[in-house]
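Here's what a typical entry looks like (DNA-binding GntR family transcriptional regulator):
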Amino acid sequence: MNTTLDPTRHAAPQVVEALRAAIISLELEPGSALDRGELAQRFGVSQTPVRDALMRLSEEGLVIVRAQSTTQVSRIDVPAAREAHFLRRSIEIEIARLLALSHDPAVIAALRSQLARQVDLAVSKDYPAFIAADKEFHRLMYVAAGLPRLWAVVTRMSGHVDRLRLLHVPAEGKAESIMTGHQTILEAIESGDAEAAQHAVRDHLTGTLASVDEIQQRYPEYLIL
């Protein structure tokens, strides 16, 4: 976990970012205890920004803060993941339609470049970086549609989905399936076929949650069903 803070920025948002990244990457595993004093020491700050960061992550469902008890990284809440996934899929189906209709060569080029990066990361089996590139592909779609603030909303809600995805990506054929989905979305946008683009997004955003049972069998201590 990166505990080096930028002195020109407020501490609390940086602690939030660092802790969220460690939770999403599973560096801090579901169920892990979080000691406020220890974290303050590691970040070199008082306990106040750490407390504020933990409360913020609690609002996102990534941390459980109990009075008079241990603060913990939350287990992966599958019902919450399904809600976040439903929202994201609904938004991105419409975004895909908009991008197919606008057929912007610059957007298509940016998406193609990001897909090429994913191919390289899949070959090297750098799964955390692969997932970051996966998210960047989708973020570019939101930005291209003029909806960057919706991406921020989706990101805040997607902590449980993101952790499920990290557990699922190493499975045989999953990375290839993600790249195939992106390629299909890109081809539909490039061809200006709005209906095909929507269908491609709908198909693409089903894999991880469709595999919850498989993930639960491998990591039963991580999930809340």
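Strands lie at 33-34, 63-64, 71-73, 76-77, 223-224.

More examples are in the samples folder.
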